[in-house]
């Protein structure tokens, strides 16, 4: 009769003999992660969260005005909320007189800090700016004329501006973020960019093109990703006109004509597919609006609480934010108007 010699210390079998298999597996994962670049490990952390939503906006403050309550609601619920801002808002009109001296670059740095404060108020931990392939920033374009799908050119266009960039280049940079974040849901502007600002229009165009690129085959080593649902930020005409009538009736200075023309963000009621109730997150939205002090003033003590941009025109502070689904399937609970109430409705968690 023969016997086998005892395992040697460097024998793999000796390392696992008699140990809990889950403990062994955990050690193996730890060893594998130890061999990876720390930045690569950090980049994968967000994939542990099964619900991920990407908001694409043009300038600091746009995200809070249009989607702040929604961002806060999903961040509070534990979803991964990512904000991608395409420019730093160098050409924003400054409201406070004490900050009127800021030149474009100084204003951009100031607005970056305002955005960081606003995101802290909303509970959003992942906020980033879009960069060119060389790592430099796209700049605020101002109100230049932009032909859809084409780069803006002319003496009045800064060559560093977002509107002056090759649209396909911008889309490719957004697509890289989509492939990294791997969101099930993406939110951006409608085709008119809310009110016609060229950077908002470019954000819409670049985002929709980016989703096609992100889902295709690439040779950059990244894995394609197909987004399940895409939403555009809109407001229903009936609610907007009702709010404007209330503002006008309150005697608010600068109130617009409630029956007058409306910006492109306002659409016929039947086009609004989704309404996210962020009433519980309204304090967070208001705190974030206060953070954007160069661009926004608030009058919350008025008969109808309003915010004002540099043009001084009062507009309502919406606790319920509305959207139009342009890709994906409507699902889940509906409100009294028959609108979907959850951006993730019908979306299976993905890793």
Top keywords for this entry?
eight-stranded mixed sheet, three-stranded antiparallel sheet, alpha/beta, globular, 351 residues
Tell me what the structure shows.
It is a single chain. This protein is α/β, with parallel strands linked by helices and 351 residues long. It has nine helices and eleven strands. It has helices at 12-16, 21-34, 38-44, 62-76, 104-122, 167-181, 198-215, 237-249, 282-291; strands at residues 52-57, 80-85, 126-129, 185-189, 229-236, 266-267, 274-277, 297-299, 306-308, 314-316, 320-327. The strands form two sheets. Strands 1, 2, 3, 4, 5, 6, 7 and 11 form an eight-stranded mixed beta sheet that branches. A three-stranded antiparallel beta sheet has the order 8-9-10. Strand 5, helix 8 and strand 6 (266-267) form a beta-alpha-beta unit. The model is unreliable at 1-16 (pLDDT under 50).
Annotate the secondary structure layout.
Layout: H1 12-16, H2 21-34, H3 38-44, E1 52-57, H4 62-76, E2 80-85, H5 104-122, E3 126-129, H6 167-181, E4 185-189, H7 198-215, E5 229-236, H8 237-249, E6 266-267, E7 274-277, H9 282-291, E8 297-299, E9 306-308, E10 314-316, E11 320-327
